[in-house]
Please model this.
Amino acid sequence: MIFSGSSNKELAESVARYLNLAVSSLEITVFPDGERRIRVIDDVLEKDTFVIQPTATPGDQNYMELFLIVDALRRSGARSVTGIVPYLGYQRQDHVFRSGEAVSLEVISETLERVGLSKIVCLDLHSVKIPEVFSIPVLHLSALPLFAQKIREIMETLEGKTILVTPDMGGIRRIKQLSEMLDNMPYAIIEKDRDLETGSIRDASIDREVKDRTAFIVDDMISTGKTIIAAAKLLKENGVNKIYVFATHGVLSKEAPEILESELIEKVYLTDSVYVPEEKKFPKLEIISIADTIANAISS
Ligand code: R5P
Model:
C-alpha cells in the first residue's frame, strides 16, 4: 500500500500510477497552531506499506509529518513501513564541521528508527557514507541514468566537444559514474572554498582545460543556486560555449529561480524528487520524473 505525506503528492500519484495502485487514504488534520494529527483510514493490518515523503522545505514540518505517519501505520498493525524519502532533509549535516554543532542527520535517523521505520529509500544522497548512519536498510537510488539519457539527447543537437563538470569536490564519485555511463566522457572538477559560518563561496578553480566545449554541470541539489552560478561563471571565463545544468533535487531556496534563469545557462534539469510549485518554476527549467525509478524499486 502506498501512502503520501503532504510534501509531494504529485510524485506519490505518479509512482502509484506506474504500479497500477491508488494512493491509500490518510487523514491529515492541521490544528490552528500548526500541529498535525495523522489518522490511517484504510486497513493496513499485516500489510507492507510505503510512505512517500521527501523532506525538503519546510523540512521540519515534513519530517514531523513523516514521523507521525510511520507511527500511525505501526499502531494500525502494518507489517512493514518503508519510507520513500527521495530528498533526505538535513543530510548535509552528517558530521560535526565546527565544534559545538549538532549532528542533525543522526537525530533524524535515530528518530525514524525509533518510530518504527523498517527501511528507507533515498535518491542521490549528498554523500555515499550517509547510509552508514542508519541501522535499518537503506536503498540508495540514483537519477544519473535518467541524466545520461537526457545528455545523450542533447548531444544529438550539438556540435563540438563536451565535458561533464562537478561544481565541487563532493561530486567526484557522481561525475565519474556519469562519465562511465556516457562512454567515458571527460570530466572536470571545480574546487570551491566555502565559508563554514555563512555558507558563501569564497574562491573557485577548475582542474582542466574546458575551452570551446559544451559543459554539463551535475550536482546533487540546488538550494540557493549560488554553487551553480559560481561554476557557470568560472566555466565561461575559461572559454566554455554552452552550459546545461543537471541536479537531482530542486530545493530552490530564496531567489534560486531568478538566479538560475541566467543567460550563462541554456537549461536547468531537475527531477521531481522535490515538488516545485508553479511560482518557483522558471522558463529554463525542465523536470525529469523519477517516478518509474521509485516504482521499480518498490516492486522489486
Ligand atoms: C554542496 O556540497 C552540494 O553538493 C550543493 O552543491 C549545494 O548544497 C548547493 O547549494 P547552493 O545551491 O545553495 O549553492
